[in-house]
Design brief:
The chain is of the alpha/beta class. The protein contains ten helices and 18 strands. The strands form four sheets. Strands 3, 5, 6, 9, 10, 17 and 18 form a seven-stranded mixed beta sheet that branches. Helix 3 crosses helix 4, helix 3 packs across helix 9 and helix 6 runs parallel beside helix 7. The protein is globular. 49% of the residues are buried.
């Protein structure tokens, strides 16, 4: 089968690799992949990796390079292994890519599978990934999608789950005022998740005016801020109730200036959620954190049990994740029209889908 594999930074190759066995092992599922997204994590691997892709065999899965990329994907069940009961051949599914011990691990025993110290991901540290014609995953990695959900939306469940969890960590609820820093794919999905949770006042900041314009086209009432021209905290305070700041600020960049903007813009006893991955240690004004009595919370991935909930949000139309897709391409041109296009500083693309049947 055809697959896109990571060999080294700036070295992705479309290669012919062996098909998975037509009869998957017990407890596993063979999926014919339909759509896969290019994630920011994939981009970082391409530009600077290996980061999450193991240089030595992964301690739990044994996987190592060259790695088939792609962890945001969906498809159709082709075959099931012995003991699989939750899906059947022909079911359309979304892939929950987190792979970890199911017991005997401190976090797994408490249902916190996403916090397992042996965590692996399909498409990063597992023998299969979404950027190939087929993938084999565990039964717990597949979730059937309803008829009203499009195939391409199945690939958007994973990044949407990240956004929904970030809003949950922030306590976003009906009537909340929320600032999102970063208008990239996760930032935009977080904005949509905040609105789906009932947030009444939304702000988004980014230094890219094209992305701010895109955010405005998706949610016309969002208040856009370019930190090159305006201080996000000043804008948020000037428009918030009592001029005190927003209830929740969610950092979706992995940038120290964005994190500082969140701490500045949130009101006293507000909540800052750190979702973007910072590449190094970043300073923060801890006097301000103490003086304002604010909470700062990390948000890592998502609990695996979120999948049915996020699917309902997307399928119902309450969270129109498909609106963040700006381009659809084929696997053959994924590097030039996908990865390279997303690394373009102009930032004219947001979320790019790879159609694996073209």
């Amino acid at each position: 089968m055809k697959a896109l594999r990571f060999h080294a930074a700036k070295d992705l190759r479309i290669e012919q690799v062996d098909n998975p066995p037509s009869q998957p092992p017990a407890g596993q599922v063979l999926v014919r992949n339909r759509f896969v997204d290019i994630c920011g994590t994939d981009l970082h691997e391409y530009a600077y990796g290996p980061i999450f892709i193991p240089k030595e065999p992964h301690p739990f899965t044994g996987a190592h390079g060259p790695q088939i990329l792609g962890h945001e994907f969906g498809g159709v069940v082709e075959a099931i292994g012995e003991g699989v009961t939750s899906v059947a051949v022909g079911d359309r599914v979304s892939i929950q890519p987190l792979i970890m011990p199911r017991s005997g691990d401190y976090y797994a025993d408490r249902g916190l599978f996403h916090l397992s110290t042996d965590l692996a991901l399909a498409g990063l540290s597992w023998h299969s990934g979404g950027m190939a014609e087929y993938a084999v995953v565990n039964e717990y990695n597949v979730q059937q999608i309803p008829d009203e959900m499009a195939d391409e939306e199945a690939a958007l469940v994973e990044p949407t789950a990240v956004a929904v969890y970030a809003c949950d960590r922030g306590g976003v609820t009906a009537g909340s005022s929320v600032l999102v820093t970063g208008a990239g794919p996760i930032g935009m999905l977080t904005l949509l998740a905040a609105r789906a949770a009932g947030a009444a006042q939304l702000f988004i900041s980014d230094i890219n005016d094209a992305r701010l314009a895109f955010a405005k086209s998706v949610l016309p009432d969002v208040i856009t801020i370019n930190p090159k021209r305006d201080n996000p905290g000043d804008v948020v305070r000037s428009l918030s109730e009592g001029k005190v700041g927003c209830d929740v600020a969610i950092e979706c960049v992995g940038n120290e200036h964005a994190l500082k903007a969140c701490a500045d813009a949130v009101r006293k006893q507000g909540v800052v959620v750190q979702t973007g991955l910072h590449p190094h240690e970043n300073p923060l004004d801890w006097f301000q954190v103490t003086f304002k009595d604010i909470d700062i919370r990390g948000s890592w991935a998502y609990p695996t049990h979120y999948w049915p909930r996020v699917i309902r949000l997307i399928a119902s139309g309450l969270l129109p994740a498909k609106q963040v897709v700006t381009k659809r391409i084929t696997l053959d041109n994924a590097v030039t029209e996908g990865f390279d296009a997303l690394l373009d500083p102009a930032g004219t693309n947001l979320k790019i889908l790879i159609d694996l049947q073209k």
